[in-house]
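**User:** My hope is that you can spare some time for a protein that puzzles me. I have put the entry right below:
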Amino acid sequence: MFTGLIEDLGTVKQMTLSQIIIETKLDNISTGDSIAVNGVCLTAVSVKNGSFAADYSSQTDKITALSLLRPDEKVNIERALTLSSRLGGHIVSGHVDGTGKIEKIEKQERFYKIVISLNEENLKYCIDKGSIAVDGISLTIARISGKNIEIYIIPETFKNTVLQFKKTCSLVNIETDILAKYVERFTKGKKTDGISLEMLKEKGF
């Protein structure tokens, strides 16, 4: 489990069809640790010389943008939560739902507006002012327009994450709010006396 607060910008050192090696300045990483790489929960299979290696499956390759990474490219890194950690972002599982495409990046004074298009399956879990993880970054949806979501990025987040390197048409990993998925699961096919996913969305849940 993660918070969506990025700890480091790592650097891809090597990439194969099933393994990625990343250089990071974070310490206290051990073999077996869970680490989110651009929002994808991976397991460190070896750690040495300021870097770690992680394997990933064909299913991860299919759902995420992980295999599009290239050597020397920067990635968002976050270590898993501990029981003593503060939950400063929102609950992020590291289980990516799919990818979104950046439609627009617009600088507005000191802030950045980013518009991302999503498929219908992921869009249904999004609400105005709701949480979403974009490449592992905990963000708030400012507005939904058609198939697009709009998010506003503060300078601190922009300069300390991979968002600074993104361009129009870049693909980003998307994880929608896990609470919305639980609500859908619990209410699907059940009589709920007027309670529905749509009603909860309207009420801000």
Remarks:
- The chain has a mean pLDDT of 91.
- The longest helix spans residues 178-187.
- Residues 13 and 71 are 5 Å apart (CA to CA).
- DSSP finds five helices and twelve strands in the chain.
